[in-house]
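Example record for the data management plan.
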Amino acid sequence: MTEKYDVIVVGSGPGGASAAYFLSAGGKSVLVLEKETLPRYKTCGGGLSMRFLQEQFPFSFDSVLSSDVKALSYAYGDYSITIPIQKGVIGMVMRDQFDALILEHARAEVRQGCAVQNVQETAGGVIVETRDGQRFEGRYLIGADGANSITAHALGLRKKRRLAAAIEVEAPVPENIWRRYARRPVFIFGEIRLGYLWIFPKGDHLSVGIAALRPKRGQLQATLQQVMGRYGIRLDDSTMHGHPIPIYRGRERIATKRALLVGDAAGLADPLSGEGIRYAIKSGRLASQAILSGHPERYSAMIRRQIGWNHTFALYAALLFYHLDWLCLALGAPNPFTTHAIMDLLSDRTGTINVVLRGVFTFPIFVATETLAILVSLLGGRESAERIRQRVYAHKV
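Corresponding structural encoding:
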């Protein structure tokens, strides 16, 4: 006998888990099919806005926070700068714990170790078949099964997807190296064309990685080893985890009448930063809203309006930034207003175009403030100069 549900969710990452949470909260019977056994390791930077999570979910994520960020550092060659941020604004998580926490709060049935083999759409619903011969029926389907989505392939969606590439390593390091980067993520530019590297603190280790839009074969591995060696992080005995990053182009179908793709399956990673968790959660919520409202056909337009236009601009911004990254960093990184705008972006309060505009239009204010602070420090000391900076650069989360 075939089991039937209102909605079948394929994949239990942040997009699938969020969709299951919101759909079950709306009274729908939900089945989540996950090919791995939970909790499972997932390659991911894991930096998140605490404000964004608080606005999306009524429960706390404190139990899965592995580090609390107090500053952001940007590096280009020998140049580096660190900008303080308010405590509690950004947190670092391990995806296995984070995804499982969202799923724990969903009133959904979860089948682990259940890999989907085929998906069929009928006039009244969807049929999902697994590799072990199980068969499920649902009125609707949400595909949250990643950049190489089996759901998308089976339904003929995103046929011409574009993928960037990334590699990440969970690196154990000595105490002195850990203290150097604790609570201070580092973004490293200028080492690879159309990409960047990162060092993120995660509890008792560092999560380091590299991503690029069009890397050559073997380039990511070699560059990651070389650059991290200069930062005192040895990767000789660590496992490298590779994963694709889908690039949104806005011309691909991400939904049918009965099936909606979310997160990486829909190609919703940010083209500039590679950020994916926030957009997975956001698209999972939009998909659930479309189904709960009885108008799933509106989902694609909702994605274009609330995510797609930003990503289209972000792709052009990425191409410009990576060709002029030294200039953008020299002018933008020291400016606290730029970091404030990035914090607003991560909390989903603004878009990429506003980050760029705020960085450009606040630059004269930044220069004037620093000039005044230098003059005041000569007359009244460093404390007086810092008071001026704090007053001008004050930013409410």
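Summary line stored alongside the record: DSSP finds 13 helices and 17 strands in the chain.
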